[in-house]
Write a structure and sequence with these properties.
Blueprint lengths: L24 E8 L9 E3 L6 E7 L7 E8 L10 H4 E2 L4 E2 L2 E4 L8 E7 L5 E2 L3 E9 L2 E14 L4 E7 L10 E9 L10 H4 E7 L7 E2 L4 E3 L2 E4 L6 E3 L5 E4 L10 E7 L2 E6 L20 E3 L7 H4 L2 E9 L7 E6 L14 E3 L4 E9 L1 E11 L2 E3 L1 H4 L8 E8 L8 E9 L4
Parallel strand pairs: 2-11, 21-23
Antiparallel strand pairs: 1-3, 3-8, 4-6, 4-10, 5-9, 7-8, 10-11, 12-13, 13-17, 13-18, 14-15, 14-29, 16-17, 19-27, 20-21, 22-27, 23-26, 24-27, 25-26, 27-28, 29-30
């Protein structure tokens, strides 16, 4: 069965927050009308909720694009459901809301659509994906954008606490999750195998993991006191502001025009390993598109070549450093891999980003293993968001129902 182009974790949930962005596309956003889900691409089944999906074609191509909806298993593979089983209406729709960028140095085409629309809607809950393709070539999927549909049926309580292990108490955070299915319309059978509970930190797709059940009392299921419940605390996110381009915003050394494109040189950064915790405002890894003094940032915002600088970090054989955040789905690829310049004794990489405010971190990959605390430090006090997702597939069932989505914060009392 063919896999989607997501980053998949072993035995874990698909990276539904944001799909990989193929070359030529940028700023893929999915926003829910349901404020309970905040920045998650989640809507409720059989409700008035809707998603607003947008993205930019940076190659300024003249394309007639369509999209369709596919249903997924929690491991990212296609579910066995046929379209008629999970969709109402025709499952191929033209994206008609397209606009050319206006008065920008970098030309791009902005695409946007809303789902559900008209009589097109989904019939079941679970994990889904929009597949975007050219009308003339439906087999060549150019972009995949995950989303989720929930049928709220269980109560989920999440507590973020100091880890039980003494050696982790200064650097990590531990979850305790309780799922109460007493009012659930489904009879939960063989819960240790059919109930799948996932947790994620700050919408960071590299942190997604399935939680092990500790015990069950009636229709109450508890997940706690296991090592899988423990997350690195890390530090508050680094950030910068490129909403203005005529002058330097927060975290920006200078802005300038080079080869008819806006450029932003960020302030030099250093490793925060073994540094004391510093409380700072951030948006927990997210980003917000906005152009200063523009009425319609979707088409009036510039794409800025942002140069990141990391100094006082010695190169080590087998170690690579990347810039990550929600803006690139936390991926470590050649695109966001930093290059070491021995004459300046620093690492650097330049990324094209749309005007706005961005959170980011430096990710260290050593001998194939991701190590975020290596450059960002590890602190129990750090303010982090946690998202918990409860899926259920009854014995003999053909798909995973999404019964609950809840957010908690490490500073919730």
């Amino acid at each position: 069965m063919r896999k989607l182009l997501f980053i998949l974790l072993s035995a874990c949930l698909l990276t539904y927050v944001q799909a990989q962005t193929p070359t030529g596309f940028g700023t893929v956003l999915v926003e829910s009308s349901n404020s309970d889900y905040e920045s998650l691409p989640v809507i409720n089944l059989r409700s008035s909720d809707y998603l607003t999906v947008s993205f930019d074609d940076l190659l300024d191509r003249d394309m007639a694009l369509r999209y369709r909806v596919v249903h997924l298993n929690t491991d990212g593979t296609l579910s066995p459901l046929r379209e008629i089983e999970y969709m109402d209406g025709i499952n191929k729709t033209d994206i008609t809301n397209t606009n050319l960028s206006f008065n920008t140095r970098t030309n791009y085409v902005h695409y946007e659509f809303r789902f559900p629309e008209g009589r097109r809607n989904v019939k079941v809950s679970g994990a889904f994906c929009f597949e975007v393709f050219e009308a003339s070539d439906p087999d060549n999927v150019m972009l995949r954008i995950p989303f989720m549909v929930c049928e709220p049926s269980v109560l989920v309580d999440v507590d973020v606490k100091v880890p039980r292990r003494v050696e982790w108490r200064m650097s990590r955070q531990e979850l305790a999750v309780v799922v109460d299915a007493s009012e659930c319309p489904y009879q939960i059978l063989q819960a240790d195998r059919t109930l799948k509970v996932f947790a994620q930190q700050n919408q960071n797709t590299t942190t997604i993991r399935q939680l092990p059940m500790l015990f069950q009392v009636g229709s109450r299921y508890e997940y706690r006191d296991k090592d899988e419940m423990v997350f690195d605390g890390l530090s508050e996110f680094r950030n910068f502001d490129i909403r203005p381009v005529e002058h330097s915003g927060w975290g920006v050394e200078t802005t300038y025009i080079l080869r008819d494109r806006w450029n932003a040189l960020l302030l030099k950064q250093k490793s925060r390993e073994y540094k004391p915790y510093i409380q700072d405002d951030d948006i927990n890894g997210n980003y917000a598109v906005k152009a200063e003094r523009m009425d319609n940032s979707a088409i009036e915002a510039e794409y800025v070549d942002v140069r990141f600088l990391l100094e006082d970090v010695e190169p080590v054989e087998g170690r690579d450093i990347y810039v990550v955040g929600k803006f690139n789905n936390w991926e470590c690829t050649e695109t966001n891999k930093m290059v070491y310049y021995p004459d300046m004794k620093l690492y650097s990489v330049t990324l094209p980003l749309k005007q706005g405010f961005y959170d980011y971190m430096y990710a260290c990959v050593e001998n194939g293993k991701l190590d975020m605390p290596r450059l960002e430090g590890n602190n129990q006090e750090t303010e982090n968001d946690y998202f918990v997702y409860v899926f259920y597939r009854e014995p003999g069932g053909r798909y995973d129902k999404l019964l609950g989505v809840v957010k908690a914060n490490s500073r919730d009392i």
